[in-house]
């Protein structure tokens, strides 16, 4: 996916020029926003995938492991994992099944709800997620490709977009612990 050599022009700027040339002026800025964010996501995901490859996990699997590791007991209801990761239940169930198969997570019945399941991080899962987190921190998160001021501005802009789309409400000053 990543280019070995930079392109001579920015294809997204050219796409915007074409939108304007075709008279789609009301949509040109929005098209540029959407395609820019999607391309940035591709670039960042390629870096994340490369950092996680030695551990044999995808980012989706890492997220489940990291969420469980952040919880007080290493155990969460499957429904809480779905809600906190903002992913469809089918995707989380599929991801959890792979983690169970690999011995990184246990899937157990919920103690109070016979229809629900609990996910519990195993010792192997905890060891893997700690190593994978160290790799992501060193190879991706500590140097995302923009300076800290730009990073803060970008996070703020994207947070407003997400909030306006109904992704979340303003949090309480101190969020409840996991």
Instruction: Provide the number of structural domains.
Output: 2
Overall residue-averaged pLDDT value: 92
CATH arch. level architecture of the largest domain: Orthogonal Bundle
- Output the strand order for the largest sheet: 1-3-2
Order of helices and strands: HHHEHHEEHH
Largest sheet: 3 strands, antiparallel
The shape, in one word, is globular
Count up the helices. 7
Question: What is the CATH homology-level superfamily of the largest domain?
Answer: Winged helix-like DNA-binding domain superfamily/Winged helix DNA-binding domain
The amount of beta strand, in percent, is 5-15%
The tally of strands reads: 3
Low-pLDDT residue spans:
none
> Which percent range fits the helix content?
55-70%
N-end to C-end Cα span: 36 Å
Q: CATH top level of the largest domain?
A: Mainly Alpha
* Content-based structural category: mainly alpha
Query: What is the fold named in CATH at topology level of the largest domain?
Result: Arc Repressor Mutant, subunit A
Question: If you compute it from the alpha carbons, what radius of gyration comes out, rounded to the nearest whole angstrom?
Answer: 20 Å
């Amino acid at each position: 996916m990543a280019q070995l050599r930079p392109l001579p022009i920015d294809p997204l700027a050219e796409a915007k020029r074409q939108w304007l040339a075709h008279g789609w002026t009301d949509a040109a800025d929005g098209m540029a926003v959407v395609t820019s964010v999607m391309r940035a996501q591709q670039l960042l995901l390629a870096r994340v995938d490369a950092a996680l490859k030695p551990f044999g996990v995808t980012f989706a699997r890492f997220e489940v492991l990291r969420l469980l590791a952040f919880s007080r007991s290493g155990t969460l209801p499957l429904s809480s994992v779905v809600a906190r990761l903002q992913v469809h239940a089918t995707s989380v169930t599929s991801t959890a099944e792979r983690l169970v198969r690999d011995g990184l997570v246990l899937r157990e019945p919920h103690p109070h709800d016979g229809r629900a399941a609990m996910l519990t991080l195993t010792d192997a899962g905890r060891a893997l997620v700690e190593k994978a987190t160290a790799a992501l921190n060193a190879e991706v998160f500590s140097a995302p490709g923009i300076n800290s001021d730009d990073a803060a501005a970008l996070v703020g802009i994207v947070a407003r977009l997400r909030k306006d789309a109904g992704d979340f409400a303003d949090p309480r000053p101190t969020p409840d612990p996991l």
